[in-house]
Write the structure tokens for this entry.
Amino acid sequence: MRGGLKLIIGLAVLLGLLVGADRIAVGVAQDEAADRLVSTGVISGRPTVSIDGFPFLTQAVAGRFDSVRLSGEGVTVSDGREKVPLRSFSMRLSGVEVGGDLRSATVHSGSGSGVVAYSDVAQLVSGTDRIELSYGGPGKVKASVGGMPLGQGDVHSKGDTITADGFQLAGLGALLNGTANGLLGPHSFTLTDLPGGLSLESVTPQQDGLKLTFQGSDVKLIG
């Protein structure tokens, strides 16, 4: 009986040590992965990396991770002219395969999202800070100048290009007419620097900004 109890205790201690070693290893790997993603330019701004699944060491030996999550507030997107912050950024990568030399990584599928503040959207859409944009309802944004409303229009995307158009002038916009039409568009901008090599899937106006969602498959993450 005593021998059996000692064996159980010994196995429990060994299991605890193995779990502890596994958690230490995954923590180190997550930090190194975050640094690698930034140094290779895959993501602007250092993300928080979370490698899912247990045990980690088994996945590491196989060179394949079932699920990796990225998040952070320092990520940006760009139209090739200006970089703007992507708030509330999150991304999930599935089937991440890492090369033996750790210099390459591919992703079977990935998805993510983030929010661009309306003040930054206005810069990208119109190239000026004279226009103020705000939420105008499902699929809609409102435009104003100095707090005076100009009108309401649509925001939609095709590929990595986002377009604001179809503005219905109202208030000050109706009075200015031609001038307001020149300010309001239609205007488009194409995102050239998307996180993780993913592509723009959709844009959705919401209260706190323009939500961007991303998708991708068979993406070369590094290398």
